[in-house]
From TrEMBL:
Gene3D superfamilies: 2.30.30.60
Transmembrane regions: 16-41, 69-86, 92-116, 137-157, 163-180
Pfam family, one: MS_channel_2nd
InterPro entries hit by this protein: LSM_dom_sf (IPR010920), MscS_beta-dom_sf (IPR023408), MscS_channel_2nd (IPR006685), YbdG (IPR030192)
Domain Mechanosensitive ion channel MscS: 184-250
Coarse class of the protein's main subcellular location: membrane
Keyword field: Membrane, Transmembrane, Transmembrane helix
Coiled coil segments of this chain: none
Entry protein name: Mechanosensitive ion channel
Length: 407
């Protein structure tokens, strides 16, 4: 005890040594507080915020929050210990207080940003709306935290009220608007995209002008990330979704049906009035009885003359359209509660386009393509029964046949 008393007396008699001792004491207190917080505060955080989890299972959230708390809590302890050290010169007290204030707001902003990030991750995992993202709002909150922290740090360094700092920003508001114009546009765009639910995570979007077609995997403040179907990534500025045209196919998936709208071209010279011989040939087809009966008003094919068919305006194209419509109505993979239409479009130099318009019951791409392929493969094979021909440009084989005929 005598040695300790003599040591303290000696330190008090030497001002420089007393200042050094107090500074070392503050640094040691800060380090000890940091270590204690880092090792023990995780239990407090778990008990307060994550009590539903088992104590034996370490959580990443516990560690992340504890690390941020262990940074700025020692700063508070050092600041309050400083109030009891009256022997320190005023300029050193002011310097340490300023450093503590700056570190406090830096660490506090990091802690709040970590909380916002945890909220974002928890929302994405627990919400029922798995395709909804609040990442843009979280980033806006982070920007707000950094702005407030920067104002407080400037106020501490200049020893002025934050109100004065904020009021002085009015003079540079125009410059700030110019610097952050893209951020402000992205903020408005993100709010409109998120609030109106025009775009969500997992949506299939297409932007033909930019060559983008794929799934939305991330919605942030400034950019929206799309994984294209060739597994490349595209990042589009959020504001582009207010100024550019894009297609969102998600409503198609929600409806449970996917549209088939494709045309094939007929040689117009193959179109003619139906004949009794053609009807006899068509009657052998499995699905032809019902559409033929409807066209002939129940008449027997054997008593229908070619003249009557011509007078009634029944052509091979008319029968083919009715037959294909009936064929589509019989398919289980075609949605029967939606439009099923086979129609002739405006003639073109490539022939007469016949459009098949219907909806498949499966929205999956592979099933959709299989259904569409089966329909048109059947059409190309069955057209010969109607004395109709597919139009195509002359190919090398055609030229070879012409040459052979001339020889």
């Amino acid at each position: 005890m005598t040695f300790l008393h003599d040591t303290l007396h000696f330190i008090q008699q030497n001002p420089l040594l007393a200042i050094s001792f107090n500074i070392v004491l503050l640094v040691a207190a800060g380090l000890i507080a940091h270590l204690l917080c880092k090792f023990f505060i995780v239990k407090v955080v778990r008990k307060l915020f994550f009590s539903s989890h088992k104590n034996s299972v370490p959580l990443d959230k516990d560690v992340r929050i504890s690390e941020k708390l262990s940074n700025f809590l020692p700063v508070i302890i050092v600041y309050y210990l400083l109030q009891f050290m009256t022997d320190l010169p005023q300029h050193i007290v002011i310097a340490i207080t300023t450093v503590c204030g700056i570190l406090f707001f830096i660490y506090l902003s990091l802690f709040l940003n970590e909380l916002l990030e945890i909220i974002n991750n928890s929302y994405a995992k627990k919400t029922r709306r798995k395709n909804h993202s609040i990442k843009g709002y979280i980033q806006i909150g982070k920007i707000g935290v950094h702005i407030v922290s920067a104002i407080m740090i400037v106020a501490i360094m200049s020893n002025k009220s934050p109100v004065i700092i904020i009021s002085s920003l009015g003079a540079v508001a125009a410059v700030l608007m110019l610097v952050f114009q893209h951020t402000l546009l992205s903020l408005v765009a993100n709010i409109q995209v998120s609030s109106n639910d025009v775009l969500q995570l997992g949506d299939w979007i297409e932007m033909p002008d930019n060559g983008i077609s794929g799934e939305v995997i991330d919605i942030a403040l400034h950019t929206i990330t799309v994984r294209n179907w060739d597994n490349t990534l595209s990042r589009i500025p959020t504001k582009n979704f207010l100024t550019e045209t894009y297609t969102n196919w998600q409503s198609m998936f929600s409806s449970g049906a996917r549209r088939i709208m494709r045309s094939f071209y007929l040689d117009q010279q193959s179109i003619c009035f139906a004949t009794q011989e053609m009807l006899q040939s068509l009657s052998e087809l499995k699905l032809a009885s019902e559409p033929l009966s409807a066209l002939l008003d129940g008449r027997d094919i054997s008593v229908v003359s070619d003249r009557w068919l011509a007078d009634e305006g029944i052509t091979n194209l008319t029968i083919m359209r009715k037959y294909l419509t009936h064929y589509l109505r019989q398919r289980a993979d075609i949605h029967q509660d939606m439009y099923v239409v086979v129609r002739a479009l405006k003639p073109a130099p490539d022939g007469l386009p016949i459009e098949v318009y219907c909806f498949s019951t499966s929205t999956a791409w592979i099933d959709y393509e299989n259904t569409q392929g089966e329909i048109f493969e059947y059409i190309y094979a069955i057209l010969g029964h109607f004395s109709l021909r597919i139009y195509q440009h002359p190919a090398g084989w055609d030229m070879a046949q012409i040459g052979t005929a001339r020889r």
